[in-house]
Amino acid sequence: MSGRFHPLTCKQVKQILTNLEFTQRAQKGTSHVHWVKDVNGHRYKVTVDCPKAPFSQDLISSMAQQAGVARWGVSATHKGNFREEFGIDVDCYVLNDESKTAVISQRGMGKALGLSDSGAALPAFVNGKKMSEAVGVELLERISKPLIFKDATVGVGLSQPRPVNGYDVQNSCWA
Question: Model pTM greater than 0.70?
Fold first, then answer.
């Protein structure tokens, strides 16, 4: 087998999934085993077929993508903006995960609230003394754990994908 990475055994894949906090679901009558993990309202499901071990780079890549941890992490496949629809200059993205998650950037979320263009503006705002008391523990926790993805929609002035922090639009209604 050619390439940079050695094939992985079934035991190694199971250990990696356990370390990533996936749990094994019971299966009947099949060699395929499903491992699941819920993150920010999304269920990631990885299918492992141990008789196919050792796993090739292609199978490992497929399992990593199912887990939302592909080599470079989750990436944006599409980028848009709310300027025309809502009059707010805020970037939004669609991720390459299994759910095709719609995301607004952390900087964009802050900008939509009238904060500065800094990516740190939103976390700083909600962690302020008065706001942290008003928004509650659940919102503070969600804002402290944004989705981190690569903006693979490289544009003018960018030669490589850049990491972006963002929030799932569908699961971000924190009222």
Answer: no
